[in-house]
Predict the 3D structure of the following.
Amino acid sequence: MAPQPAISIAKTAPKPKGAIVFLVAENGELPPSAKALDTDGRLSDAIGIAGFEGKTGTVVEVIAPQKGVDRVLILGLGKREEAGEEDWLKAGGKLFAALGKSTAATVHTDLSDGKALSPGEIAHLASGARLRAYDFDLYRTKKKDDRKAVSIAFVTAADTAARKALKEADAVADGVMLARDLVNEPANILGPVEFARRLEDLKKLGCTVTVLDEKKLTAENMGALLGVAQGSVRPPRVVIVQWKGGKAKERPVAFVGKGVVFDTGGISIKPAAGMEDMKGDMGGAAAVSGVMHALAARKAKVNAVGIVGLVENMPDGNAQRPGDIVTSRSGQTIEVLNTDAEGRLVLADLLDYCADKYKPQFMVNLATLTGAILIALGNAHAGLFSNNDELSERLTRAGLDTRERLWRLPLDPDYDKLLDSKNADMKNIGGRLAGSITAAQFLQRFVKNDIPWAHLDVAGTAMASPKTAYSQGWASGFGVRLLNRLVVNDYE
Ligand code: BES
Ligand code: MN
Ligand code: ZN
């Protein structure tokens, strides 16, 4: 993996070396720290010549301004009052990218108007740099030549508070990067057993990790999940991660993830073109893993349970066939008309299990569930489906706060009835129309007792992601910051 920048917080500026970074809000002036350095007015000149106005994402670079200093960077922050979490991440990403070959940087966090960045803003800036530096290069034996270990010091008077904020932000960024790693890993490496093994690492953070193997899944009557898994030589696993940071009696919040480590479609096989993307069909499970990491690493005052269903959807002599009827854990029977609609089969058993075993306050499941959600919403929003307006509004709010945005789509008996089957309690596909909604309706049939539930269809947001200043790779880690924020906002 590409080296992560080493971030530190300093109360006073170290001896100038490497890159020196100053921050300027839109239409702002150079901060006092910059003016102190700019005795000959060269920095002010540079700003004038570059036509720099402090607009978001703009940078002025002055190379070799004095002996021993590589460069001065003046980073535009845009309208500071309007800046949210993601704007700071973007600025941090931009900052990291602008360092060029410098291996040390000092970032002054004062601003011209006498205000300075808050500890939280500094922490997000640092996370942006870390997330920008993330590069999945594990399997490149010839690494890119711009790979470098960088140390970045943020100078702030509020150093103690900034260190604390940084620790919290690191917990979340590490969770995002864990999710990215899992999504980026090829399926030959990351099968169900290996995925489960990686989750066992969360024990080090104080989580309880329970792994259910085939025998236990059979004992649990998870016939829908097992039907998907039976075509693969690699056995399934269900992993339950618990973080108990809240009061002993408090019911947990629950996150459930689709973890199809590879989705060939099964006997209803997918076309060859682009099938390699289906290594990311565990993006929901990756987000659940990432948020559990984040909550545990920052010792969140909440009880949380994360459940992932890890299977491989393969066609072989033992694979399930179109027309097979399976009995789910809930007792409801399902006619599997299309073996490529497998994610909902996995989640059906997990949702039923989760409600029974953990009686959670709510369940949010995440899944790369339908191609249709890409047609409806593209890459900018994940689909949100819910039986509960309050949960739905809280998720939407967390999405706006983090800009991991959600857009709610309807659930309705008129869609639900499209799943009725002559031969069983339901079929696993609803036909050509409203594919993302019928998938959600299917899931809802397995949500017991109207427990507050939301389904996030992340097929368009977890993988094959558009590049941003803080996300340059294929996997975005979508969902980790969102769910962490949901907990921060409403459950801690
Ligand atoms: N994993 C896919 C959905 C998917 C598509 C995720 C593109 C990411 C990118 C899912 O298992 C699937 O195959 N869904 C089918 C459902 C259909 C058979 C009803 C689909 O979307 O075509
Ligand atoms: Mn599929
Ligand atoms: Zn799938």
About this structure: The chain has a mean pLDDT of 97. Residues 260, 263, 281, 342-343 surround zinc ion (ligand 3) (CB under 6 Å). The longest helix spans residues 159-184. The chain is about 35% helix and 20% strand.
